[in-house]
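Q: For a teaching handout, I want to show students what a protein-ligand complex looks like in token form. Below are the inputs, and the small molecule is nicotinamide-adenine-dinucleotide. Please produce the holo structure.
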Amino acid sequence: MADLQNQVALITGGASGIGAATARLFAERGAHVVIADLQEEMGADLANDIEGTFVRVDVTKEADVQAAVDAAVEQYGQLDCMFNNAGFGGALGPIDETSEEDYDITMDVLLKGVFFGIKHAARVMKPRNAGNILSTASVAGLMAGYSPHLYAVAKAAVIQLTQTTALELAHWQIRVNCICPGFIVTPLAAGLDADEEQMMRFREFAAGAQPVKRAGDPRDIAEAAAFLASDSASFITGHAQVVDGGVSVGRSWTRQASWITQTRPISVYRPPGR
Ligand SMILES: NC(=O)c1ccc[n+]([C@@H]2O[C@H](COP(=O)([O-])OP(=O)(O)OC[C@H]3O[C@@H](n4cnc5c(N)ncnc54)[C@H](O)[C@@H]3O)[C@@H](O)[C@H]2O)c1
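A: Here is the structure, written as tokens, with nicotinamide-adenine-dinucleotide included.
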């Protein structure tokens, strides 16, 4: 079990879904948690529950991210883990109907917000020669077809930024990793205004969406984050950790529309003459 005793962790998007599950798990494992989110009531309630702190942050605004990092350091003396997790679905629809405004807001939240997070975490971690930075990317950033265009592009960029900054910040013993979730049951994936029944229907869909036949839970991502944030992962940096029940592994060969599987019983294939 990943020990986070006395770590100080700042989690953007910590009021809901993956961020909220991570805030709870980190607190259970001994961390001081700062929740940074736009959703004030939910964030403050959760912070209260886990004896952490809430700060209202819009990750698209550099001054907000900078102030949240400084507040964490001021309150707890240091920042050990920065988790850039805030996100939303971004622009939907066909490419020829996507507006410049939709492009900007999608990239601002999903990429610029992560850039600000890494930048300001590095600023306070470098003088200590310690720290680790995590971001939530997605399987959609690894291959096409899992999300709308700009979401996929932004998440691919988060994976690249993880790798380029991991190379730079290793000099200061700062590790930088990201997590690529598959289908996880959260308001973002089910629909932000989803009621309980719609959430349940999404959970049923998600249970059948990948080789591992259960729905992905925010806690699955939180466990990966806890491991990557812990000393057990001290030799891991620049890594994009996939947590997806196998959805991005590929299609099972037995379900391919291939000549072999259509014309022969599935058993050992023997060459002619044997
Ligand atoms: N749920 C999935 O299936 C899935 C899959 C892959 C990746 N992700 C990623 O996981 C991350 C968390 O999403 P989730 O599924 O838990 O969704 P969620 O909607 O439950 O949580 C997202 C949180 O981010 C906050 N947020 C959004 N914009 C913000 C901003 N500008 N400033 C500050 N906070 C902001 C929201 O208020 C919310 O609390 C996102 O980056 C998302 O892209 C989710």
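A: Two things your students might notice: The chain has nine helices and seven strands. Residues 134 and 265 are 47 Å apart (CA to CA).
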